[in-house]
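Lab notes, practical 5.
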Amino acid sequence: MRILKRLFLVLLLIAAAVVAALFAADRVVASRMLAMPFGGSLGPVEVVRGGKPPDVPLAAPGRESIAPDALRGAIAYGEETGSHALLVWHNGALQLEHYYPGFSAGTRTPTQSMHKSVLALLFGTAVRDGYIGSVDDPVGRYLPEWAGDERGAITIRQMLQQASGIGYPKTNYLNPAGAYLQVMMGGSLEHTVLAQQMERPAGTQFDYNNVNVGVLGVVLQRAVRRPYAQYLSEALWQRIGAADATIVLDSSEHRTPRTFCCLDATARSWLQVGLLHLQAGAWDGDQVVPREWMEAVVAPSALNANYGYLTWMGNRHERLRRYNHRSEVTAFHSEPFAAPDVRFFDGFGGQRVYIAPSLGLVIVRTGSLAMDWDDARLPNLVIRGIEADAGG
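Output from the prediction step:
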């Protein structure tokens, strides 16, 4: 018993020393790291005000346009992967709206990098409204900090296509003062992302990373001259009648949004963003995002046929889809998509919105982090169910 007590005391002292070292390195990051297991946030939360909820047509029970076996299979896969919500829109109506135990239509789920694809739409409205001159503007026009060096010549298009050439920190959870955790959790995001230097010439390599998107968030907020959450609400969220959502800021002092993650919204709100893609940017007679911008968002970039403006596509099958040259993280696609025009929002751990315009199809899955997520399984189950129902 005495040995166990001594061992416990030693472990307690080691834990205390580790915590002290974390706080000595960076108090803000350390406190957020320690709070994460208990539901803590990556920074202060700000509300994105929504609008009047739209009337959403629901398929009559027993008259769905997708084979029942396919819908049951989709629900089962959602359960297997710890999902919170699963929505399927087809033929002008919701064919499936399923919430798993403990979750409901009002649940706002963290959806990781799906926020990136929303930011892509906001750049389209900012160009239309004259806040940004052109997608080919050099970012130095909006960032005086970069105007005097080669980074200032990077275009907004290159950043949207993740081809800026800007360096980005390697994953490192051990150093609170290091650039990786400063980007993810630090209290001065603008300072950290704008401090990154060129690693290679712009337009020469695809490298999906959060620094590009963090910089774009700074550019947009400066260009529209108002808080990011306010612009997101006015330009998009209210106009499609999405429910109130939240974003995360770096700190109450600096108020820089983490635009690469942390847009927590309901599954129906994500469905409504997916429907904007299906409807070429229009909503109830209102052209919310310019049609030509919606086309540009899903135009394959020169360096990656499966990536447009912060949005993924299935133009070329890759069994293991790699995000960048530095990380070993991949996304698994067991087979090609069963429709030729699938585009999707990709959030870490299986947060997804799949859209197939040729089929009038939108699928939303939100939930727990599914590290073995198969990007082909859910959409192909549903797509084949459409074909089976049509054949029957």
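Observations recorded by the TA: The CA atoms of residues 106 and 266 lie 6 Å apart. DSSP finds twelve helices and twelve strands in the chain.
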